[in-house]
Design goal:
Layout: H1 3-9, H2 23-30, H3 34-46, E1 50-53, E2 56-59, H4 61-73, H5 75-91, E3 94-101, E4 105-112, E5 127-129, H6 133-141, H7 145-152, H8 155-159, H9 164-177, E6 180-183, E7 190-197, E8 205-212, H10 213-216, H11 221-247, H12 255-266
Antiparallel strand pairs: 1-2, 3-4, 3-8, 4-5, 6-7, 7-8
Helix pairs in contact: 2-3, 5-11, 5-12, 6-9, 11-12
Length: 271
Amino acid sequence: MSSLTRMLGLLDLFDTERPFWTSEQIMEATGYTRPTTFRYLKVLRDAGFLARFGGGYTLGGKAAKLDYVIRQSDPLVKLFDPIMSQLRDHIGCEIILVSLLGDEFFATIHKERIGNSAEQSWPRGRPMPLHKGAGGIAVLSAMPKAQLKRMLKSPKIEAASVDVEELLKEIEAAGKQGYAISYGAIDPGNVGIAVPIVLNGVPPAALLIAMEKHRYATADVSILVGLLQKARREMVAVFNAYQIQLEGRSGGADTSTFNSLATASADTQLN
């Protein structure tokens, strides 16, 4: 592991359950020497990723800035938002886009809410275990076998005492039928239906419908899956068009590129 990787890994210590760390706690958690720990902390603090607070450290202003930038300009959100909002309006359920986050989690990167939609316990950016829920199973089903094998050997999977054989059966079933369904895996009263999304050069993702169990009981699953698959085809088409435009721009994409493609995707009808 490189020195840079170890230094950036300190940022992973900070989360909602433990947003404050002292240097001593960091040394204990990582096993790094005092000189190494203080050197890493100084670099991260000088760069704005960490800030001093009450004798310890919290995430700094640079994290807030990056959060704002990604929320305002995430390419996938810009491109897929019109398609997701149309799907939400068409079926009256919450629509969620999730993506792989590192080697052990996936996370919501965009959500189209509706007034009476199912309450989700997992907001944008919060890590979710890969083995829980339709979104995680769909993401896993889209992975190459070598990557999936590595994922299933991760410390988080082992620590959670996951039945890997049963999990593999779920993943294989999702791969064969093209979608995954979970019942109360994330929220006890909800059902999730997800289809995997594979995009060139982008981590595996999934498009998810979240609905209350009582609505699911009267729903036609084949219709819901069909709508998800149609939305996925539109997403892939818009993304591919964006990549073609991007390849023709030596300076990369600008706001007008996103807006023109997003407008085109908004003109697509789901019904």
